[in-house]
Amino acid sequence: MTADRSGPPFSVHDVPFSTYGSWFDISPVVAEKTYAEDLHLVSHQNGMHAVLRLIPLDPAAGDRAETRVEATPGLLSWVGRNGRVDLAYESPDTVRLRGSGLGIGVFAAARTLTPFSGMYFFHDPAAQGHVFSSYETGRRYRVTVLSGTVTDTAGAQALGSADRGVAVTAEADGVWEIAIDELDTSRPPYASSTAFDEVVEAARRSFMDFVDAVAPWRSAATPAAELAAYVVWSATVRPTGLISRPAVLMSKHWMDKVWSWDHCFNALALAPGRPELALDQFALPFDHQDASGALPDSVTHSEVLYNFVKPPIHGWAFGHLRRRLPTLPSAAELAGAYDRLERWTRFWLTARRAPHDALPHYQHGNDSGWDNATTFDPERVVVTADLSAFLVLQLRELADLAAELGRDDEALRWSRTAGEIQTALLEQLWTGERFVARSAATGDTWSSASLLDLMPIVLGEHLPGDVSSALADHIKAHLTPYGLATELTASPHYLADGYWRGPIWAPATVLVEDGLRRAGHHRLADDISARFRALCETHGFAENFDALTGTGLRDRAYTWTASSYLLLAEAHAHRGSH
What we know:
By secondary structure, the chain is of the alpha+beta class. It has 13 helices and 28 strands. A hairpin with a 4-residue loop joins strand 10 and strand 11. It starts with about 25 loop residues before the first strand and ends with a helix. The model has no long low-confidence stretch (mean pLDDT about 95).
């Protein structure tokens, strides 16, 4: 366990500064792959929207001061030659800022106000605050000056294009302080008896309590555990809008949704230390299960998308989840999970099986979660081996749950269906050396250089030995010094930043590692785990990674990557202690 109780330092260029429960963060990342010069207050209500620019000011000249930004889980600071500005979360919807030797400017991110977009700015005489009203987020952002002097107010009540905001500083050798809170229509004037240092300490303590719960096993051998925990903790939002329970977003950058397979990895990582939050993560997409039993593709504050689905890894995940919880789920909890998994499974057995076909199909690569994998190059409506393997595991979990619930006839039926699909999988898609994909329309088959074709390794102990050994040999060919490339690096279709056509991804790593281990290929599983852990310890928790350099790609603060690190690091720590 680390001695520094302030938590790990990090770069806000990669990881947004936020707190558990908040729907906004402080970051220079203002849109997909877009980095601003200044830090912004960025909201994730009604989408990702940069709301306010936060500008450290030279109190003498009144213009931007040159500073460096430092961040730990409880405190963000702009540090200049002659002073500093500190920021901390007092609550999920309120930040406090304090400065000396430097001032602060809080300005609307957008200059243009129209009847449908932009920011309206005014001084509220009732609440004694400066208020920004945002069309994009549908929320208000109020600046209350607690001490110091307002040196500039720009654009109050202005329409059209204008700079809008307020600047605050203090007398020489003095200290100023402000609060910024996010609210709906109104609330009483801001008031707090908590000193700024106490705010910082409370934020630090909240994070350390979280990391102590989810990673009590951490040591010098797992050096990225605290930062991984911060990525998950800071990306958690309180129930609001269509988010029906506390939710770990995939990121508080632009991937600010819950996708219906990403959530499983966050649930697994949280299970031992934060079991209620873990169960919430697993259940959240099921809150929006449609009449056919399908899960949505994704859920966020103000939209639920159903145009695609995600793969049925939920039986695999729930089996692991209930074994990782500190107390066994009650019969009622098991029955609820069973009913939801049953509906999800029947969707695949009915809506996604052609007449007289034993195996289900995807309608697009997006359904698999491997959006543009080369498996889908010939056609998109495809019977693939990974889908049948996941469904077999889900059927086996349903059988186990039915047996525990005393539903013996249902348990027998699910076991029989699992056996039928696995038999069909091996008879129809296994060539003797590898699995192939098949057109749902013509029956034509093909293979690819995608790791997706090897994902039936998730069946683990249920696979015949010769099949799991052949898969393990093929998986070895995907190993780079940094982990499992999703497309063979020698493939003509390999792309360094090709999404699922090359880069290393966390979920594929965890699923393959688990399947290999359950199939008895422990040495290869250990190697894959070690390479991925080292990758995260060096390059952070990006959405995916360049397979040949390890460089983090796309969204740089992705929670399923952090959770996957926590899962593999915990398992490694426990293996080392026995």
